[in-house]
Design goal:
Elements (H helix, E strand, L loop, with lengths): L10 E6 L4 H14 L4 E9 L3 H4 L2 H26 L6 E7 L2 H10 L9 E7 L4 H6 L2 H8 L4 E4 L1
Length: 152
């Protein structure tokens, strides 16, 4: 079965990606959403310092090295996951609160025009603490000013 390309604008998908199983499912879902459409997938890793880490210059330096290594590893993992399936993607590392940075990444997609659609795609958290305290997906549902897809 082939799908005719849509006459609508392009589709830009901003995928929160940390290498976890939910993030892998979100990236797979983004590939499926983009199929038959013009657009791109932006794979976004958000490096996040805890308040305790922000109190120490040594901890910040050490965490920056960890974030650099994580960035390389996650970009390679995303490339492997997308190999042979989707070539229209790029990888970006941002730093800050996860939900806030994903919203900012979606808002600043320079390639998106007025007829295009930008969508944030994230995996749902399976951690019990997130059910009580909230997760990035819950925060995005409350604050995102673009469409949001939460992949189970």
């Amino acid at each position: 079965m082939s799908v005719a390309p849509s006459s609508a604008g392009k589709l830009y998908l901003v995928v929160g990606y940390d290498g976890s199983a939910p993030a892998v499912r979100a990236l797979d879902a983004a590939v499926n959403l983009l199929r038959g459409r013009e657009g791109r997938i932006d794979v976004v890793y958000i490096a996040h310092l805890t308040p305790a880490e922000m109190m120490s210059a040594d901890a910040i330096t050490e965490m920056e090295e960890v974030f650099d290594e994580m960035t390389r590893d996650l970009q390679a993992q995303a490339a492997e996951q997308l190999a042979g399936r989707e070539d229209r993607w790029r990888f970006e590392r941002r730093q800050g609160p996860i939900a806030q940075e994903l919203v900012a990444a979606a808002a600043k997609d320079a390639d998106a025009g007025p007829d295009d659609t930008v969508v944030i795609v994230v995996g749902s958290s399976s951690q019990a603490a997130h059910r009580i305290l909230g997760s990035a997906a819950v925060s995005l549902a409350r604050h995102a000013n673009v469409p949001l897809v939460i992949v189970p």
